[in-house]
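Late entry, evening session. Most of the bench is empty. Finally got around to the prediction I had been postponing all week. Sequence below, unchanged from the version circulated by S.P.
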Amino acid sequence: MKFNRRTTLAGTGALIAGACVPLQQDTSGRLTAKLRLIEVGSGGTLGVMLLNTADGQTIGHNSGERFAMCSTFKASLAALALDRAAKGALDLDKVLYWRESDLQSYAPFAKERLVTGATIRELARAAQVLSDNTAANLVLGAVGGPSALTQFWRSLGDDVSRLDNVEPLLNVVLPGRVENTTTPVAMARTLAKILFRGGVAPQAAQTLQQWMRETQTGTKKVRAGLPAEWVAGDKTGFSGSPPGMQGVSADIGFAIPVDDAPIVFATYHRATTVGPPSPMADAAMAQVGGIIRQFTGV
């Protein structure tokens, strides 16, 4: 083949054009690429799984990587308590009492009710809506401890998520450890099964959906990036700064577009350096909310 100026320019133009075209042209590929870009500016590792409950379509990034679960376990804990009650295996109206020494550093509801005590129902709601750590420990005790919650996950087909400790020790997950961890894909599938796919009694799923909608801790995370007219609920997680650990921030939940099927999301973020969670994590999760909107075609 003879090369001249015209063929050389044409070939060069083709190479330039090819370099400008993304390798993945489909919606899934484009959104996954956007998740990677969000991670770049987040100050750490971002794990995401989005699941469309209507057709099973998913979008993920680092979705199979393990992260500290932090307080995101509390949604499943509330589901377990509500499901047992619906099946007659737990009395949610039973009043529990605790001592001042049982109070964790973050326990707004438990501190307020130290003298009067509270029902298991009230404690389960406080664990979900307020992320009250003492309330969570009390409900864990009522259902059989961390191993009982892990077994609940196994019964739902989740062989990844595991809880090994109570608050606050469950937040301490050093590099390479699997205790008290989950993956975005495992948690998204589990949450979808609990809320929308018959994993628990219908009344338990409905109550948990309502509690997640009432949750007050995630307004700056994924829900901040969703359209205001959508119905959404979540459960957040925050590791604090355990020695030797890269801080983790998390948000799991659901988003229901107007006249469309629910999208379940699970987002986890681990800071690059040892210390507290990245200050950019919330903004990254809010951007994931924008990805959810694009995922639905809105």
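Two things to note before I forget:
Confidence is low (pLDDT under 50) at residues 1-24.
The beta strands are 44-52, 58-61, 67-68, 95-96, 118-119, 181-182, 231-238, 248-256, 263-271.
Will write this up properly tomorrow.
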